[in-house]
């Protein structure tokens, strides 16, 4: 605990006792961000950009701090300033895409993820997040391509597999969606949402009441209350 707090205390004393440099302000902003002190991080970075408004990385980190606070418009503004200063860095495009996603502005998010992917095609997170934006736009086949690209980096990702299943259902492919959902619950046996979607799909798409009820009851036991309506209507004798 003390080892964790000491660097921040030393940094505070440094910044309070002298005129900090741009780099010291940047490091203070990053440290505060990592410690989830978002207001403090923004305060340091505001001081930095007053000294040097052309510091692209500072605008990006400032945007992340605003994003973590849920201040999405301010985050987008900061990411945009970072992009204008350094349009060859994928990170502010990716981060701005995430902010657009939180606003459910899927088309704007897709544009930013495309830019990020063009700058660094090896980042698997870009494929996953772009897949989510495509899913939001009901572009299911394209979403599946991106989810598969994300799974190439690591096949055992329950969140990716779950959203892949949603895209497969949107693409009228319940059999493969069930296979994806079965993989989700194999990896995460307490994933109530996956059990629920698995149960609904088994019953509504394949007419498999026994399997569907088993999955729905599991979802309900894990606290997924939406499953109760299905269980009460279809699974009680």
How is this fold's topology laid out?
Layout: H1 2-17, H2 22-34, H3 38-51, H4 56-68, H5 72-85, H6 90-102, H7 106-119, H8 124-136, H9 140-153, H10 158-170, H11 174-187, H12 192-204, H13 209-221, H14 227-235
Helix pairs in contact: 1-2, 2-3, 2-4, 3-4, 4-5, 4-6, 5-6, 6-7, 6-8, 7-8, 8-9, 8-10, 9-10, 10-11, 11-12, 12-13, 13-14
Key descriptive features of the protein:
single chain; 237 residues; mainly alpha; Serine Threonine Protein Phosphatase 5, Tetratricopeptide repeat; 14 helices; 78% helix; elongated; repeat
Question: Can you describe this structure?
Answer:
This protein is an all-alpha fold and 237 residues long. It has a domain of 121 residues: Tetratricopeptide repeat domain (Serine Threonine Protein Phosphatase 5, Tetratricopeptide repeat, Alpha Horseshoe). The protein contains 14 helices and no strands. α3 packs antiparallel against α4, α6 packs antiparallel against α7 and α6 packs parallel to α8. The longest helix is centred in the N-terminal third of the chain and has 16 residues. The radius of gyration is 23 Å and the shape is elongated. The N terminus is likely disordered.
